[in-house]
Each structure stands twice: as structure tokens, then as C-alpha cells.
Amino acid sequence: MDGYFGSYVLVAALFAIGVAIVAGALTANRLLRPTRPTPDKLTTYECGVDPVGEGWAQSQVRYYVFTYLYVVFAVDAVFLFPWATIFDAPGYGLTTLAEMFVFLGFIALGIVYAWRKRVLTWT
């Protein structure tokens, strides 16, 4: 496996072996599983509720807004963990503190904007 294309051949061989293992496992599953379809097993299942009516339903936009706000706070929390670990390192204290206050200021502006637009009220 020397030469320029040697490592590419190795990667391709490992990829082919991986595909073969997955395909073999799926084929073994298909051959060994019991197959007893019944009308109850073939009905649509969602969260334990029997399907009633049409499959199309309107959802209000406020659910998406709450989801978006959750994502913003999750990203904020993810950013806080590395900041907390490097804050104690020598030479990074005041710089990282200022950066974190700028970041939290942007988050606070977003919350104030959502609050002023009455997005956070649940009616």
C-alpha cells in the first residue's frame, strides 16, 4: 500500500467492508425475523393514539417561536461551558469576561425584543 493512492485504496477497502457488514446484518435480520402481518400491525401508529380524521393539521406559529427560543438558550448554555473552563486560565480572565457579557447582551436583546413583541405570552 505504498504510493500516492495507497491510503485511498485502504479507505475504500474499509468503507466496502463496513458496507458489507451492514448489508449482511440487514439481510440476516430480514431472513430470520418472523413475518405475521395483521391489520392491527399495519395501521398507522403515533404516540399510542389511534389515527382519527385526516393526516393534515394546522399548527400555530408560536410553537415554532418557542422552539427557536429554546435553541437560542441551548446554544447559550453550550457556549457557557467552554467559557467557564477557560475563564480560570491565566491571561484569559478579563477578555473572556468581556466577551461573555457581549454575548449575553445579544441574548438579552433578543429576549427583550421577543418580550416587547408579546411573543412570550401564552394565550
TrEMBL record:
Residues spanning the membrane: 6-26, 63-86, 92-115
Source domain of life: Bacteria
Protein localization: Cell membrane; Membrane
Key words of the record: Membrane, NAD, Oxidoreductase, Quinone, Transmembrane, Transmembrane helix, Transport
Major location category of this protein: membrane
Enzyme Commission code(s) on record: 7.1.1.-
InterPro entries: NADH_UbQ/plastoQ_OxRdtase_su3 (IPR000440), NDAH_ubi_oxred_su3_sf (IPR038430)
Keyword Magnesium: no
Family classification: Belongs to the complex I subunit 3 family.
PANTHER family reported for this sequence: NADH-UBIQUINONE OXIDOREDUCTASE CHAIN 3 (PTHR11058:SF9)
The protein's name in its UniProt record: NADH-quinone oxidoreductase subunit
Lineage, broadest ranks: Bacteria, Bacillati, Actinomycetota, Actinomycetes, Streptosporangiales
